[in-house]
Amino acid sequence: ATPSEEKDLVIIGGGVAGYVAAIKAGQEGLKACQKRGALGGTCLNVGCIPSKSLLNNSHLYHQILHDTKNRGIDVGDVKLNLENMMKAKETSVNGLTKGIEFLFKKNNVEYIKGTAAFADEHTVAVNLVDGGETSVRGKNIIIATGSEATPFPGLTIDEEKVITSTGAIALKKVPKKMVVIGGGIIGLEMGSVWSRLGAEVTVVEFLGQIGGPGMDAEVSKNIQKTLGKQGMKFMLNTKVLKGDDSAEIVKLDVEAAKGGKQQTLEADVVLVAIGRRPYTSGLGLDNIGLETDNKGRLVIDSEYRTKLPHIRVIGDCTFGPMLAHKAEEEGVAVIEFLTKNYGHVNYNAIPSVMYTHPEVAWVGQNEAELKEAGVKYKSGSFPFSANSRAKTNQDADGFVKFLADAETDRILGVHIVGPNAGEMIAEGTLALEYGASTEDIGRTSHAHPTLAEAFKEAAMATYGKAIHY
Ligand code: NAD
């Protein structure tokens, strides 16, 4: 293969980090070129988007089954058509993937479909999806190869019986018994989907709380109670010792995390959701002398540069939370560093959302983190059961909680468990970004009747008193 002319920029990876960087590069007039298979990466193809389709539609199904009589709606024979539910998911994914291809064309991004590996510091060799090879030279190169599910030692992922999130969005029938290893975001979101569709779901979590790192303990307890009422079972402080997937029924030996009684769980499907790890294998990092840290992350400086300054890294394969919107911010910032020498991502104001029902969302620090840092803080909260809109919607589980500096009232963290928490957290993120105080929020008019009034009243409860509680 003969290398074509040198490009301003070659981006390896068409996930959220890579495709956003490519579009931004095109807008800035760079000649960008992008590689790997389907555009959209994990998020669009097997992550955020398909899971949200299933979360939305499984919630509708569950609601029609269990939550209509009290609303004055009598329904007849309700049946699940899993095949069609999956088709609806695929339609959403396909539409959005094509949208990115369109944006590439619009922004003059050349799209090479294939698997890339470094031949030398400026040359990337590509095994093309449609057969054959090519190579491309880049003055600058961005690595945005993302992450993959961390496997559980001793269990073989076949995406049917032992699954990761990828299998969990594509099961062909509703399992009778599903055991989820890991009570983080993936375990709870995908566990919710299959629980709503009729599976008996047990979540085994090593720590004393669900929700993974970052979720406030009070929020975690609240959502656990609600998910429990919906039928999910939890085994906290429990570790999975080993698994046996040799027969049709998978067996898992579990034990109290601090040692103690052992028992064996049986499941027809086991979801492994114990975290994700950077995906850089096969990239030929050895050929150019780039190393990864003990977690497999590519090491970079504050401008995303590796020790080879023309090679930068963004998204899941480097530091920071493995979140699509964090990767997107970096996709824009990295191009700004390249073209203008400055870029900006505020890592203290990246929101987290768990799309269960109710949703959980937070931004900034939680109580445990503030205590550990020795920060003096005050808190105020407001329950959705006292919010007129949530009550009227008969959807009033959860609360909004603010954490603010005890002296200055500057907002340090916002934690929400409740309906539409994922949308509402945008206001908290903006407040944090602008350095707002809870009084700034409390003195801002919020339309009535909306769920957002709970946000305002929680702020009022932090510097003074709420009106409706
Ligand atoms: P996670 O880190 O959120 O949670 C993993 C959980 O598994 C932790 O609570 C951990 O204590 C537990 N665990 C680890 N090893 C265990 C073991 N041997 N036995 C029992 N429990 C064990 O990871 P995840 O849920 O797999 O998600 C992976 C990544 O993808 C995360 O960074 C997550 O934020 C991201 N993600 C985000 C969203 C979202 O933003 N809505 C959705 C899906 C995934």
TrEMBL record:
Q: What class of enzyme is it?
A: oxidoreductase
Q: What is one Gene Ontology biological process annotated in the Swiss-Prot or TrEMBL record?
A: 2-oxoglutarate metabolic process
MF terms per GO, please? dihydrolipoyl dehydrogenase (NADH) activity; flavin adenine dinucleotide binding
What are the names of the required cofactors? Answer: FAD
Q: List the active site.
A: 448
Protein name per UniProt: Dihydrolipoyl dehydrogenase
Binding positions (FAD): 52, 145-147, 316, 322-325
**EC number(s) per entry:** 1.8.1.4
Q: What is the originating organism of this protein?
A: Oleoguttula mirabilis
Domain Pyridine nucleotide-disulphide oxidoreductase dimerisation, residue spans: 350-459
Q: What is the gene called? A: DLD1
Q: Does the keyword Protein transport apply?
A: no
Query: Could you tell me the keywords of this UniProt record?
Result: Disulfide bond, FAD, Flavoprotein, NAD, Nucleotide-binding, Oxidoreductase, Redox-active center
State the disulfide connectivity: 43-48
Q: Where does NAD(+) bind?
A: 182-189, 205, 275
Q: Give the note.
A: The active site is a redox-active disulfide bond.
- A single cellular component GO annotation: oxoglutarate dehydrogenase complex
Sequence ranges assigned to domain FAD/NAD(P)-binding in this UniProt record: 7-331
InterPro entries linked to this entry: Class-I_Pyr_Nuc-Dis_Oxidored (IPR050151), FAD/NAD-bd_sf (IPR036188), FAD/NAD-binding_dom (IPR023753), FAD/NAD-linked_Rdtase_dimer_sf (IPR016156), Lipoamide_DH (IPR006258), Pyr_nuc-diS_OxRdtase (IPR001100), Pyr_nucl-diS_OxRdtase_dimer (IPR004099), Pyr_OxRdtase_I_AS (IPR012999)
